[in-house]
């Protein structure tokens, strides 16, 4: 039996050794403890030394050692304990000592030296904005354990950040410093040399005979050549994007029938002494193939003729795998074979195209169908609505328990939930949970609430009225029934989908306007019939003189509206009908409207409004597809025709005591997404105002004023303001004249037209702050009568702007437009104009 001499206080058991000779043991030998090789010992106690941040019991749990364990030297159990501790990557040094012995009982000490922890780090060689972005990338925090892996990972993230921006020559030096202010702490320094950005000069294709370089370069969406005119595309080289674009090159070939096309190789050539590279891509095109015979197997619901009509692929068409997949499963408009079955309840439908014969350049396909049985909806649930009540959501849901499953109903439900404006459209989700055994499906909708209330607080210069202060509150998910429920005020009663708007504007005595409106979108709670009640009162007091002053010039208007809306089912359920009864009372005190002998008096406007709308846009804030078309008719009773009175000698007060007129307006906007988050908005509108009685003539109120930002501001004399950027507010009116530097407005127009095209770029889809810059061209005009109407005589403008939508403040923006034509009364072009946009779109 062999006797080993072990240090009495510091007997060391290393990871790579079992029990070694005393001369090999780290530490100084003072006394020895005799342990016998091959003899079993019991662990009588275990102590922990060195570690400052670890729990004793946790260390024992990781090591696998416990008091009472029996070990035989050399010990595999102690070796495993050291390995287990090393795996945690928390320690710089690990040692286990035998510190004492009593008979067959030994005492162990586990010595752990912690790895240093990060106290702080710094980044040099870059500007502050870049430092902030890099901090977000590497995500280092005080207290992180500093390992080689942590340092390498942080360095690689910095290099990857620069590669993504085209800086392939970037260098990162990592410096470590001991933090003398803290125990066992390190300071990391990242010293960066950015170098120059590398851009792509040329993209060359080799071996392409049937598809030109230009078409292949166009197929590459993210990898572009450097060209001075290409302001919307970056020419930096990003390897990940380049690899994705190589797949798009193959997709381009396959769309044209070259199903076997492949990339043989690609290479990068760095131009000496320059910051440009050339890309060379070698292609093997292969042969071109065509569709030949297409047969359907397993279809009982629909005959071959119907399926072929949906497929829209004929014998002799180039073999296009992408087109085939779209026509079978994923047409953007839902006109594919899969949707045909899914819209008739066949949730368990399965379709597999199989190439059964390839002969010369032709391919025969079998469409193997397993229809399954029709599925019915079992349960419909909604998750995530912690503010909006369930009934507000469920009344918009088109998938009802007991109905056949229809894919189009789910898509329409998602649109309707988005249109509510209460939820983040980017995070709306649906999860159908099928149960093949019962032939049913549960549908789970997930929503994420967003802020819907809006605050308008602004100050502006209102011409001769001075500073105009505005305070507006819009509560777009209001709950009137909980007004008297104290628990519901958090901070306001909400969740029933109602709208409450409060607004006040004032400059003191010069101008005041107060308005309130309330909308219940589902009157009675059973059908989508809305009720809107609104009222307002405004006072315009030029000069600010008090009541009773003979020089006072004031116009007071009081208005009230009660309207009912209805969602129609014909021609389709994108149509809505709104009808309203409106009343305005005008009081003139020495106020000039441009009507002779009518500076003092009263006018009353009782009118009926008919609005027919079709809106199938995908989302309300930044639509990318669909259209919004509105037809409006507003008319008063024909009092003069009903009474038969002769108004030839009537005073203006008699003529305009009860206003009579009719107005037509047509407004349409179409949205087309030409690329991801790049949208063209095409808009056209036209309005006409007529009279029943030529003797009375047109109303002095309700006329059209064109020009400017289109915001009502402080002008509330019954006019209808039509924005036209690049021109002053209300400047395009018939009969306007120039007096010195001032343009004297006429009485407004009775027929106008306006056309707009915008190119919009969504740069921030964040629902809390959606941002999009835009370019626009615009044209319009305003005429005093139908006889004067000239459809091609237009005031033209162009410009750029930016919009930001924040749920708390609504839509805000600024436009800079250039008017090419002189406004009425002037000879010089309107020139550059700045317009501030609040709440409305052009």
Automatic annotation (TrEMBL):
GO terms for biological process: membrane assembly. One of its GO terms (cellular component) is cell outer membrane. It is found in: Membrane. Keywords: Cell outer membrane, Membrane, Repeat, Signal, Transmembrane, Transmembrane beta strand. It holds the Pfam family POTRA. The keyword Signal applies. Residues 198-286, 289-372, 375-450 form the POTRA domain. PANTHER family: SORTING AND ASSEMBLY MACHINERY SAMM50 PROTEIN FAMILY MEMBER (PTHR12815), TRANSLOCATION AND ASSEMBLY MODULE SUBUNIT TAMA (PTHR12815:SF47). NCBIfam families: OM_YaeT. This is Outer membrane protein assembly factor BamA.
């Amino acid at each position: 039996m062999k006797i080993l001499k072990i240090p009495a206080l510091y007997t060391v058991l290393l990871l790579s050794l079992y029990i070694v000779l005393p001369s090999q043991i780290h530490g100084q030998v003072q006394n020895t403890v005799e342990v016998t090789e091959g003899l079993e010992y019991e662990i009588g106690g275990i102590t922990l030394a060195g570690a400052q941040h670890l729990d004793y019991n946790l260390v024992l749990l990781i090591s696998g050692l416990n008091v009472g364990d029996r070990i035989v030297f050399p010990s595999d159990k102690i070796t495993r304990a050291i390995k287990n501790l090393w795996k945690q990557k928390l320690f710089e040094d690990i040692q286990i000592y035998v510190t004492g012995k009593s008979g067959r009982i030994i005492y162990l000490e586990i010595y752990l030296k912690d790895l240093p922890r990060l106290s702080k780090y710094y980044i040099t060689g870059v500007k502050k904005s870049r430092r902030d972005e890099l901090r977000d990338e590497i995500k280092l925090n005080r207290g992180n354990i500093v390992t080689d892996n942590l340092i390498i990972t942080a360095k690689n993230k910095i290099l990857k950040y620069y590669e993504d921006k085209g800086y392939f020559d970037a260098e990162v030096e990592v410096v470590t410093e001991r933090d003398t202010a803290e125990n066992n702490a390190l300071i990391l320094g990242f010293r960066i040399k950015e170098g120059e950005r590398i851009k792509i000069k040329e993209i060359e294709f080799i071996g392409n005979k049937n598809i030109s370089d230009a078409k292949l370069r166009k197929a590459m969406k993210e990898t572009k050549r450097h060209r001075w005119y290409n302001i919307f595309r970056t020419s930096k080289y990003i390897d990940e994007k380049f690899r994705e674009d190589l797949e798009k090159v193959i997709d381009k070939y396959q769309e044209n029938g070259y199903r076997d096309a492949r990339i043989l190789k690609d290479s990068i050539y760095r131009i000496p002494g320059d910051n440009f590279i050339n890309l060379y891509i070698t292609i093997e095109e292969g042969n071109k193939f065509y569709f030949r015979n297409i047969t359907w197997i397993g279809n009982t619901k629909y005959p071959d003729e119907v399926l072929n009509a949906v497929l829209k692929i004929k014998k002799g068409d180039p073999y296009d795998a992408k087109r085939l997949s779209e026509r079978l499963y994923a047409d953007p408009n839902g006109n594919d074979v899969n949707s045909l079955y899914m819209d008739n309840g066949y949730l368990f439908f399965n379709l597999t195209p199989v190439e059964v014969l390839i002969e010369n350049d032709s391919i025969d396909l079998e469409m193997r169908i397993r229809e399954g049985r029709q599925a019915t909806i079992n349960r419909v649930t909604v998750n995530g609505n912690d503010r909006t009540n369930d009934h507000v959501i469920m009344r918009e849901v088109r998938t009802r328990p007991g109905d056949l499953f229809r894919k189009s109903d789910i898509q329409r439900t998602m649109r309707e939930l988005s249109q509510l404006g209460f939820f983040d459209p980017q995070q709306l989700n649906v999860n159908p949970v099928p149960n093949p055994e019962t032939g049913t499906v549960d549908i789970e909708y997930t929503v994420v609430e967003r802020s819907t209330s809006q605050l308008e607080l602004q100050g502006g210069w209102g011409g001769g009225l001075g500073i105009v202060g505005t305070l507006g509150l819009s509560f777009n998910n209001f709950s009137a029934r909980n007004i008297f429920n104290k628990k519901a005020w958090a901070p306001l009663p909400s969740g029933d989908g109602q709208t409450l708007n409060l607004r006040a504007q004032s400059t003191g005595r010069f101008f005041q306007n107060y308005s309130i409106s309330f909308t219940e979108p589902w009157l009675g709670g059973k059908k989508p019939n809305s009720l809107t009640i609104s009222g307002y009162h405004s006072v315009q007091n030029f000069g600010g003189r008090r009541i009773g002053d003979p020089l006072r010039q004031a116009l007071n208007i009081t208005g009230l509206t009660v309207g009912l809306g209805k969602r129609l089912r014909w021609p389709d359920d994108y149509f809505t009908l709104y009808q309203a009864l409106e009343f305005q009372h005008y009081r003139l005190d020495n106020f000039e409207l441009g009507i002779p002998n009518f500076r003092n008096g009263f006018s009353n406007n009782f009118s009926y409004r008919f609005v027919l709308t079709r809106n199938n846009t995908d989302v309300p804030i930044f639509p990318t597809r669909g259209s919004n078309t509105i037809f409006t008719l507003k008319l008063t009773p024909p009092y003069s025709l009903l009474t038969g009175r002769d108004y030839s000698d009537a005073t203006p007060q008699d003529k305009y005591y009860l206003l009579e007129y009719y107005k037509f307006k047509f407004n349409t906007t179409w949205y087309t997404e030409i690329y991801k988050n790049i949208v063209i908005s095409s808009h056209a509108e036209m309005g006409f105002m007529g009279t029943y009685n030529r003797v009375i003539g047109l109303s002095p109120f309700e006329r059209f004023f064109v020009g400017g930002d289109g915001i009502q501001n402080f002008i509330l004399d019954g006019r209808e303001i039509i924005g036209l950027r690049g021109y002053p507010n209300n400047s395009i009116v018939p009969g306007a004249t120039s007096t010195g530097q001032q343009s004297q407005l006429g009485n407004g127009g009775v027929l106008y037209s306006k056309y707009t095209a915008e190119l919009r770029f969504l740069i921030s889809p964040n629902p809390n702050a959606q941002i999009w810059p835009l370019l626009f061209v615009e044209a319009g005009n305003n005429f005093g009568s139908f006889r004067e109407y000239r459809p091609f005589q237009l005031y033209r403008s162009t410009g750029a702007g930016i919009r930001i939508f924040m749920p708390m403040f609504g839509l805000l923006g600024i436009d800079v437009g250039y008017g090419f034509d002189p406004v009425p009364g002037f000879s010089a072009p309107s020139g550059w104009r700045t317009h501030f946009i609040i709440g409305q779109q052009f």
